[in-house]
Amino acid sequence: MQKKIAIVNDISGFGRCSVTVALPILSAMGICCGIVPTAILSNHTEYPEYSLLDFTPHMEEYLSKWKKLSLEFDGIYTGFLGSEKQIQIILDMMEQFHFPSRIVDPVMGDHGVIYDSYTDEMCEGMRKLVAQATLITPNVTELCILTNHAYHEDIAISEIEDMCKSLASDGPARIVVTGIEKNDTIGNAIYDHGKFEVIYTKKVLPLRPGTGDVFASIMAGSSLHNTNLKDAVQTASDFIRTCLETSREMGIPINDGVCFEEHLRMLTNLFI
Ligand code: PXL
Predict the structure, then answer these.
(1) Are the C-beta atoms of residues 210 and 221 closer than 8 Å to each other?
(2) Res. 272: pLDDT tops 70
(3) Cα–Cα distance between 102 and 106 in angstroms, integer?
(4) Burial class (CB in 10 A: 0-12, 13-18, 19+), 5
(5) Statement: the pTM of the whole predicted model exceeds 0.90
(6) CA-based end-to-end distance of the chain
(7) 40 alpha carbon – ligand 1 mean position (Å)
(8) 167 Cβ partners below 8 Å, 6+ apart?
(9) What is the pLDDT confidence band of residue 117, given thresholds at 50, 70 and 90?
């Protein structure tokens, strides 16, 4: 049986992030995708200009039709969210649709800085959403925000493990912490039902927007395919490293993100 996923994310018209990343990657992984847009942007917000249409006022009506059509999904995957109300809508959606897999990428900040759009109420809402998840993919900044831990450079691995334990005691049994920088490598910490380990990959500069979306999308697909978490993390980091190398060789502008299209077949062949 083909698996089905509901992707809740914004549509950034250009710049390879959110839905323009999640949809091709999950399709390549053989998963049937439904989309719940949170906002429509001309392009992502790292470019000097963008337009943004907030979809919050239309989401409940949109989802009521899915409910009337009795649509059913094996999983839900949420990304960039724009308002507290949106978080509440997703919590309600989780109650109504009973998704067996619930992947939450808590997009809230990076490099120790919380995004401007994130209010205290949204942080509180995100803590509730994360508690309902079966797998979350925070970066180190987001892990600190979620656990009320002060962010600092050179966070020790033992601190990351403690934060994972504390977060898991309230909800998600599986946590992958991304972007742990150590010299010329990047680590991903894997917390899986109490077991903790970190795997490192070669860092490929420049870092680019959308990388987190590629990572979380592969995690979401792997979760629906019941792949072992460590294998999934290895696949995602190999894929991203390869795409970053190609993006650099092709001279892709940094804001245009990761040229994953060149390597999608690495994901297509995984489950056949
Ligand atoms: O990749 C995360 C992301 C998602 N959505 C929007 C963004 C970004 C990152 O800049 O701007 C609109």
Answers:
(1) no
(2) no
(3) 12
(4) buried
(5) yes
(6) 13
(7) 11
(8) 130, 136, 143, 146, 147, 175
(9) confident
Atom of ligand 1 nearest to the CA of 45: 11
Ligand 1 first shell, C-beta below 6 A: 10, 12, 17-18, 41, 44-46, 80, 107, 209-210, 212-213
Cα(111) to centroid(ligand 1), Å: 15
Q: Which atom of ligand 1 is nearest to the CA of 46?
A: 10
**What is the structure's pLDDT at 120?**
94
pLDDT, one tens digit per residue, over 65-104 is 999 999 999 999 999 998 999 999 999 999 999 999 999 9
Mean pLDDT of the chain: 96
- What CA–CA distance (Å, rounded) separates 60 from 139? 29
Reduced to 3 states (helix: H, G, I; strand: E, B; else coil), residue 256 is: helix
CB 82, CB 14: distance < 8 Å: no
Q: Are 54 and 65 in contact (CB under 8 A)?
A: no
Helix (H, G, I), strand (E, B) or coil at 193: coil
7: phi then psi, degrees, rounded to nearest 5? -100, 115
Query: How many angstroms is it from 19 CA to the middle of ligand 1?
Result: 10
3-state secondary structure of 47: coil
Distance between Cα 272 and ligand 1 center (Å): 32
Distance 157 CA to ligand 1 centre (A): 27
| Residue the block writes with tokens 């299209």 | 261
Q: Does 206 sit behind a cis peptide bond, omega within 30 degrees of 0 on the bond before it?
A: yes
Distance of alpha carbon 139 from the chain centroid: 10
Question: Measured from the CA of 39, which atom of ligand 1 is nearest?
Answer: 12
Contact 184, 202 (CB under 8 A): yes
Atom of ligand 1 nearest to the CA of 79: 4
